[in-house]
Amino acid sequence: MEMIDLLAPRLREWATEPDTIGVIIRGSGNRAFSAGGDIRELYYSICQYGSGENPYAGSFFAREYELDHLIHTYPKPVICWGRGIVLGGGVGLMAGASHRVVTPSTKMAMPEIGIGFLPDVGGSWFLRRMPGRAGLFLALTGAPWNAADALYCGMADYHLLDEGYDGLCSVLAAEHWSGRTSDDRATVSRLLAGLASLPTEASRVRTHLDHINSLVAGDDIHEIGERLRSASSEDAWLDSALDGFRLGSPTAAALIFELWQRVPRLGLADVLRLEYWVALGCTARHDFAEGVRALLIDRDRTPHWEPAKLDEVTRDLVIDHFRERVHPHPLAHLREPAGDRPLATTDT
Question: H-type helices in the chain, by residue range?
Fold first, then answer.
């Protein structure tokens, strides 16, 4: 929450400051851009408020999603230096930047199914826009993406070397800027293209896309779940992804698929409003707190999901996660980004 409250007002200030040409967002140090939201604090708030109204969670998700929306709609160039680990909420910060940079060390993922949660921060929107059903597969398995995957899936625009940040800053500082957004964005694109290189590691998603599409084909999450549970692979990445589904929360899997089916004709702002309800629904139910406990609090890595099997997840349980829990909606004021278009079909 503290970082969100530092970032948002500064970004709004720079958006109207005449001498600010654009913004670069990067993580401190070399290990990560962002490992995601502080789910420990959310866990402690759930312990405090139980299944009732949770003011901390309501405020956190509202401010986080509003910050993500601000980046998507920012009136000036935003460069995101996505070096190292980029997980969950970090992907949300990166997704909306106008110029998204990955490096050889980039490792991205939306691993929320492993903690009984959903790929939020607009994940239901940008995962739906990946090639084929890659986004659904990545959401259901929590599988990581490398730099080549990010480029292929439309989650990054340029690949630079890990040590290339200082060089980027040098060429930005030496450039002449017009102060006109369209011209300056084109200039940033030209400079980044001049520094870019090809990833040395292949895209796993691209290599396995046909198999991925067959695994998660259809309109029945139970059939998809059975395929993912029974499948095997000699490829280490695919095999690990399948394990991610098997070990994940069955309720989260059902929620991910429900969102997948609901969002094709929704714009980003509507998706963020929908994810807000589901996020609050997760904080009011068992699996999210249990997943965080097992991963980060007790660290026993043996979450006890309720229900324990996908076949036991009822329709009523899924729908209850979408229930409107506060009025008015704290994100009611968000507007769709310019140029955002709903998907034309229910499956792309």
Answer: 2-16, 39-49, 55-72, 89-95, 123-126, 134-141, 147-152, 165-174, 181-195, 204-207, 209-215, 221-230, 236-247, 250-262, 268-283, 286-292, 315-321
185 Cβ partners below 8 Å, 6+ apart?
77, 98, 99
**Residue 73 contacts residue 268 (beta carbons within 8 Å):** no
- Whole-model pTM: value is 0.95
Contact call for residues 274 and 33 (beta carbons, < 8 A)? no
Q: What is the pLDDT along the chain (348 residues), one digit of tens a residue?
A: 999 999 999 999 999 999 999 999 999 988 999 999 889 999 999 999 988 889 999 999 999 999 999 999 999 999 999 999 999 999 999 999 999 999 999 999 999 999 999 999 999 999 999 999 999 999 999 999 999 999 999 999 999 999 999 999 999 999 999 999 999 999 999 999 999 999 999 999 999 999 999 999 999 999 999 999 999 999 999 999 999 999 999 999 999 999 999 999 999 999 999 999 999 999 999 999 999 999 999 999 999 999 999 999 999 999 999 999 989 999 999 998 877 766 655 454
Domain ranges of the chain: 2-321
Fold of 2-321: 2-enoyl-CoA Hydratase; Chain A, domain 1 (3.90.226)
